[in-house]
Amino acid sequence: MTYIKAILVTHDQSIGFTGHVKEDANLSTMTLPAWVSELEDKPAPMPLLLVQSFVNTLDRDNETDRLASDDDARAWLIEAGLLEAPAAARTSTDGLNLARQVRESIRALIGQGQAEAAELGLAELGPAELGPLNTLLALAQPPLDVTPDGQVRLCSGPADRLADALVILLLIIRDAQADGSWERLKLCSNPDCRWAFYDRSHSRRGQWCDMATCGNKIKNRNLRARRAHAQDPGK
Ligand SMILES: [Zn+2]
């Protein structure tokens, strides 16, 4: 498939993960689609934006979850262009629970990908994280097309089964790992936040979803801890 290097610059909700290529998109003027959190200010390029937005459907800071109820989860999957509406209607609570578990597995996967994983306390993936992904892989049929000119690519358009819709996210991750963009998708270093953000900084050393909130909060907390320790080293 063609890698989509820049962000969507449209609010057209009919656009799914195939997106539009807009190489010269200006980030400051872009409009993000409705399936992206309105709080997203460090969006990944398409199609990695889908993975980021899926993880960020859970906002721990504001205690909101766009997948909380089954109907909300179905609506988000349709809106994001991952799942056809009739398939969403057929999807059971068990299936949607798997989707919610896969979301946390992918969050852990993002944390593992970042250089500071160990120092951020992002432990190696274990059965709790890998289990839902293995369940998903056993259920899904990879939604791939082989074109007449011999290209193997992701099918365009939404899937007609939930497992196939979720496996699209894993295929997007695989492509991002191959092209290097995966390394820029990170979790916020605030353990109470863990928002997924795309680090566009030149140094690639961004640590926070937002410096003004999480960055300063944790820096002040660390500073207080160091001062307390300096006053009473026995603590
Ligand atoms: Zn944060």
What's the short story on this structure?
With 235 residues, this protein is mainly alpha-helical.
What do you see in this structure?
With 235 residues, this protein is mainly alpha-helical. The protein is built from seven helices and six strands. It has helices spanning 48-55, 70-79, 85-90, 93-113, 127-139, 162-179, 211-231; strands spanning 58-59, 64-65, 144-146, 152-154, 185-187, 196-198. The strands form three sheets. Strands 1-2 form a two-stranded antiparallel sheet. It has a two-stranded antiparallel ribbon with strand order 3-4. The protein has a two-stranded antiparallel ribbon with strand order 5-6. The structure holds zinc ion. Zinc ion binds next to loops.
**What's the count of strands?**
6
Q: Please report the number of helical segments.
A: 7
> What general form does the structure show?
globular
In what range is the share of β-strand residues?
5-15%
Q: How would a textbook summarize the main sheet?
A: 2 strands, antiparallel
Mean pLDDT: 85
Radius of gyration: 19 Å
Residue share in helices?
40-55%
Distance N terminus to C terminus? 57 Å
Can you list the ligands bound to this structure?
zinc ion
| Helix-strand string | HEEHHHHEEHEEH
Reported CATH architecture:
Orthogonal Bundle
The helix-and-strand class reads mainly alpha
Number of domain modules: 1
